[in-house]
Amino acid sequence: MMSSIRFSIAGAAFSVLLLTGAAGAAPGTEADIAVQKMALAAAPMSAAALEQLYGGRTWRWNDGGGYFSTKKHRFTAVTRKGTARSFATGRWFATDGGKLCMKAYWSNAGGGSGAITCFLHREQDGVVYQKPNLGGQWYVFRHNPVQKDDEARKLLRGDRIRQGR
């Protein structure tokens, strides 16, 4: 029972890593390889740029979302799988090396566990590239100009977690 609870909480904590199908896939097509090369040629984003991109916004995920408060860098999140819900509270931080991290305690009806999830960001000419800090491949997070399927369009102003939207 305890291992299934831990698995459930860990699954919720790492749902952030499953934001796009391409994020964890090995580059296979010429387009994928080109994105990897362009991302590596781009400059890491500054902490200030990441704070401007994420601060005061909710990142909507397929199964929930996380809010990046500008007040003391608080982070809150919720995920839903069927009737099961997991909640997270913690902090987020950004570095001048392009890293954005969420350090949170995730809990559900069966217990809780801490997790740190980080993403790397690079930018060139208004195009933002992102990848999970551990593994995964670079993908275009935001095109220039922004396209309708960009992951960055899921960054919504305000606290949609507390509002329940």
From TrEMBL:
Protein name per UniProt: DUF995 domain-containing protein
Signal peptide (residue range): 1-25
Pfam entry (one): DUF995
Source organism of this protein record: Brucella melitensis
InterPro entries linked: DUF995
Keyword annotations from UniProtKB, A to Z: Signal
